[in-house]
């Protein structure tokens, strides 16, 4: 009976959602996994939710913690300003910078070896198509063309971080200057391969952002610009010291050359050419149709495997292995009845592993664990980015607290589809939210989060914090059990397919 009710509301939801956002995943989910309890009781998928919210959410709720030893200072990200309504990125929307560049000399002048494309909404790209020397003190790339005294100086600026639409974080990204005309400083370190220049600053230090704004755009950029054939040197304009150490293996798969970190390295470097900026296709997405060599997530997975798949081995298991990604501490979105949940999982037949990643967790270990598992499950949050380590065909269960439907879809559900994961979503009911204790089940806060958005464009920070940092989850284990059983069925099938 209860099940019937749910399928009706799911059907309604499918219709509604179809005309809103993320229709593909949800409708697919509805048709393909009809027995799954899914999606929260309320449709609250703002079509234009402020993009600042996601960053605000990730930067604050799981703010970067010390990593590796010795603990580095956490990335300096001041508290976000109050949310302001801001339009989502729109392709081809002319920015003021774009207008400015149009006034610079036409790009076709033969001596113009510096070119920038500022049309995309998420990123800028610049290119120096001749020899260049970079002065690390002023973050300036000098184009070293044949000197012609009559040539006017050409100056371009770029912030090589793919969140151009988000003023708040961009204000903290270094501006890089590209200049032709004046003679540059003398070159100390000569490189024979082109430079790929980007920022590892911003939200770096948060596992979601490390991939969403870093490695996935890096993968896309390499495959777009170099077609995965050309050799290049990675040059970062800024970033925490631990970043190169933590991601050494992955960086090494991209480029065999040591990373040049401009902030730390005070010598001048010169390159035969340089590309600045990273291309993003949207949250956690790799859009095959936009890549000249048609690469997909499969290829990104191959890179991860090359980087992390060589070491640790997990013991084999006869039962499907489920990894419960657990959020710790006072950051919110904790499963209050986690112990009981684990008991239920074991009853169903899972081999349960509790995974509490910190910034110090070695990626080889996380990779070995996740990539040998059949199910990964957790409450929406940055740690679910570990779903990147699951094998295609594995099951990924996302528990979605009240009010975070939009982020759940945009950051993880869509990408799960691209990665060919068996995606299951469990939207908690009002009664399963800890907020019910304080606000009552009839409060608008619980019943209609969308209504609290300002002009449908985002919550004020206080409201955002309530959903993301003050909300914990007390799972209705009777209802959730059917979800787990579905996951178990899919996991057994996946195991069987793996053995064949
Ligand atoms: C870089 O330039 C932009 C636009 O001119 C500016 O808003 C931003 O504050 C600058 N960032 C830094 C870190 O100086
Ligand atoms: C670049 O090539 C030159 C000549 O082949 C060589 O002497 C030099 O060591 C190379 N530099 C680097 C950084 O590989
Ligand atoms: C991929 O790019 C194409 C062409 O730009 C676009 O039509 C399509 O919607 C994109 N797919 C996704 C999943 O964003
Ligand atoms: C919530 O609303 C229902 C129906 O409108 C009502 O019966 C119930 O008493 C209300 N509960 C609280 C705690 O206000």
Automatic annotation (TrEMBL):
What membrane topology does the UniProt entry give?
Single-pass type II membrane protein
Q: Which residue ranges have biased composition labelled Pro residues?
A: 67-90
Compositional bias (Basic and acidic residues) at which positions? 91-101
Where it sits in the cell: the answer is: Golgi apparatus membrane
Instruction: Provide the transmembrane region boundaries.
Output: 12-32
- Looking at the record, the residues that make up the Glycosyltransferase 61 catalytic domain are 285-397
Instruction: Return the annotated region ranges for Disordered.
Output: 54-114
The identity of this protein, by name, is: Glycosyltransferase 61 catalytic domain-containing protein
This protein's species is: Stylosanthes scabra
